[in-house]
Amino acid sequence: MSMRPLPIPTALVVETAGLSKSYGSVQALKSLDLKVARHSIFALLGPNGAGKTTTLKLLLGLIRPTAGSAHINGLDIVRNGLEARRHIGYLAQNPRFYEQLTAREMLRFRAGFFYHGPRAQVEAHLNETLALVGLTDKANRPIKGFSGGEMQRLGIGLAQINNPELLILDEPAANLDPQGRRDVLNVMAQLRERATILYCTHILDDVQQVSDTVAILNQGELVAQMPLSELLQSREGNSYILVLSGETQPVQARLAALPWVSSIQVLPSAEHTTWRVIVSDDAAAQADLLRQVLADPQVNVLDFGQQKRELEDVFLRLVERGVNEPL
After folding, report:
1. Is 126 exposed, middle or buried (0-12, 13-18, 19+ CB in 10 A)?
2. Phi, psi of 168, deg, nearest 5
3. Residues 228-261: pLDDT tens digits?
4. Which of 141, 187, 242, 243 is the most buried (most CB within 10 A)?
């Protein structure tokens, strides 16, 4: 098996600076500064026309930038384009296969572009790849009979057959049933030990399950780029939802006076009193918020829990209001 060039030891697998692309007077991408850390699962989000596809095409060398620069593993995508692409594996949104071939034959065909050496060593690598994407039991069946999820997992296997440092996946779980999506996400989670994954998706629930970093594009501009946990953290502070019955005014006044309670919002409710309590000290809230309410015998607690922010809410606020607006 031939030796591939050793990866360049950079902390960032992808780094762009002012990366831009124009088509005449239309700016498809405006001064993109993207930083993708090694062994991260990085989700690139945005509405249609936001610049996601343009970004992928630039990184893959399919189009040339109008301005700015991008590096893959420290290699400039223009000056060192061929060498940079050796470090990339790519799965298109709608992959095509030779459906009369088996999964093993398809992988063997792709591996032939990268490996030249003892057949046994190549076959061992194929077996490892089939196991990685969960297709060992389907290895010798024609691809024509595969489900959508099986085809996507085969596509990921083909994309990573050359053990690239960067995997670029375009909508890897689109149009799959829940089981197919789950299986694809499981493969992606396993692959992070081997590679860095940069992918586009419209399925925000999947992003919350598997990604650690998110970038959001809108109208060709980057409006957010940060760890997912930070993006989902409210700028106001953490909040708790309480559903109460009884005489709530005295306990509301007592809670509002606590130093770690930022505000109490009364939410619309037909039958009961519902509060959203925003706190500045989450540890204090977890230890004492419910106790403070239960200490009042005139109040009954019907429901209590920490409010979790959903990525869809944050995404829509950023796209509709802009990055400088409060979340």
Report:
1. buried
2. -110, 120
3. 988 887 655 688 999 999 999 999 999 999 999 9
4. 242
Give the Cα separation of 101 and 63 in Å (integer). Answer: 32
* pTM (two decimals): 0.79
Tokens standing for residue 146: 């595969």
Structure tokens at 257: 């006076």
Coil/strand/helix, residue 19: strand
Residue 76 DSSP one-character state: E
Q: What is the DSSP letter of 142?
A: B
Q: Are 66 and 86 in contact (CB under 8 A)?
A: no
Beta-carbon count within 10 A of 53 CB: 18
Q: Please tell me the distance from the alpha carbon of residue 177 to that of residue 175, in angstroms, as a whole number.
A: 7
Q: Which of 44, 71, 51 is nearest to 213 (CA)?
A: 44
Q: Kindly report, residue by residue over 73-127, the tens digit of the pLDDT.
A: 999 999 999 999 999 999 998 889 999 999 999 999 999 999 887 899 999 999 9
Q: In Å, how far are 114, 115, 117, 212 from 120, measured between CA atoms?
A: 15, 12, 9, 37
